[in-house]
Amino acid sequence: MSHAAHALVHGELFDDPEVRRATSEAEKLAETLNDGKLRLDAYSDGGVAGSGSEGSGAAIIRFKGTDVTLNIRLVPVGRRLSSGRAEWVGLLLILAVLRRIKATVTVRLDNIQVVNAYNDGQWSYERNLLRRNDRDLALMCWNLMAAREHDGLGRIEAKHQRGHAERRKKRADFDTHEVYNDKVDAATHTARENDAVYVSFAPLSTDRTVVWYEPLETENVGAGTAYEVTSDAYRHITLASQRRTANRRSVEKDGLFLSTFSQGALGRSAKEGTAVRTTKMMHGHLPTAARMAMWGGDKDGSLDCACGTTLEWENGKVAHLQNHMYACGCPEERTARARWATAVRSLTKAAVKHDRVDEVTNAIMACWGADRTGDIATCLLYISDAADE
Under DSSP, is residue 197 helix (H, G, I), strand (E, B) or coil? Predict the structure, then answer.
């Protein structure tokens, strides 16, 4: 679960360690306050990174002077992760943590579409349900809210909070809600590498139509397993059928290798799917010369690079050979690395908001390890040590 390309489909939300921890903290704080008319403010947000290849949902619940904060990592399957889906997860986390606490709660988030859909309720959402995006998360939110009302625990209402106040005023002029909107935005970036990663959560009710899809290997979205379609089901069926037909023809014409690595996610628009390069890197499927040889049946072998280095592999394990591009001394590779270093330095300087921007940028570039000539210091040291041996 903690490595690239591994995530939970229909994971149990209440069993997540972050949710269990936050629920325990919230219930203890509620008992300490011992207020029969408890009123709470809560804040949620969702973040997306890597052009929709990953993201997270976060929430902060205020108990007088104490905050309960939690975060859950998300990845998409079959389409890019949208900010709206991440925002739904943030709202869902609050409802999950407070599911046994009697209180009137106001949740503030900066996505007005999610606010309106949640407050309108399930009956307004039911029409053309299979065409609705993120219906699985919306239905879970309404199920938890309905359970609260049935148990007399009080309503949880969502309000729109205008985001990114820093673009309109100084931080010293923020009001309380703007301060916490900024805090919960920062909380979306606090997930740890070994935290569980989710594609979707197990539904809280079974009285709905669910569409599942099992992708082909040539689609590069996780062969060998199925996932729930949470976007427009009719659009998904149309695009998937076109994609499978195109891939099948490609396999017949060009073979499985070219179909998998050259075309990959054919038939998926920019809005629907993660970039093919991103997917291939996540799965370790870049088509190096060694991998092509392996696909041709050579489980063991070696290749000589133009720089003079001999690359060897055994038992079909060729992924490590891709690291040679960082150490290769060929002019083309050095030029590419020099361009990378220039681009990284430029983007870093633009992103750093600090009086000593040059020093900060130099420190970051030193961690990255590349210089303006295209050499990577750690790789050069490795080559030198190997030559000495």
Answer: strand
Do 109 and 62 lie in a common domain?
yes
Domain count, the chain: 3
Question: C-alpha angle 296/301/307, rounded to 5°?
Answer: 110
One domain, residues 190 and 228: no
Tell me the chain's radius of gyration from C-alpha atoms.
25
**Residue 140: per-residue pLDDT:** 94
Same domain, 182 and 217: no
Backbone angles phi, psi at 58, to 5 degrees: -135, 155
* Token pair recorded at residue 1: 């679960």
CA 294 to chain centre: 31
User: Is 296 within a domain?
Assistant: no
The span from the first CA to the last CA of the chain, in angstroms, equals: 39
Comparing CA positions, the residue from 207, 47, 205 lying closest to residue 141 is 205
Whole-number pLDDT of residue 324: 75
Residue whose structure tokens are 């029409």: 127
Evaluate whether 343 touches 288 at the Cβ level (below 8 Å). no
Question: What pLDDT, on a 0 to 100 scale, did the predictor assign at position 51?
Answer: 74
Residues 187 and 79 in one domain: yes
Average pLDDT per run of 10 along the chain, which is 389 residues long? 61 93 95 86 90 88 93 85 93 96 94 92 79 91 93 93 87 91 91 85 85 78 75 87 80 70 45 48 51 61 80 73 75 78 81 81 69 55 44
- Yes or no: say if 194 and 72 are a contact pair by the CB < 8 Å rule: no
**Rounded distance, CA 261 to CA 270, Å?**
18
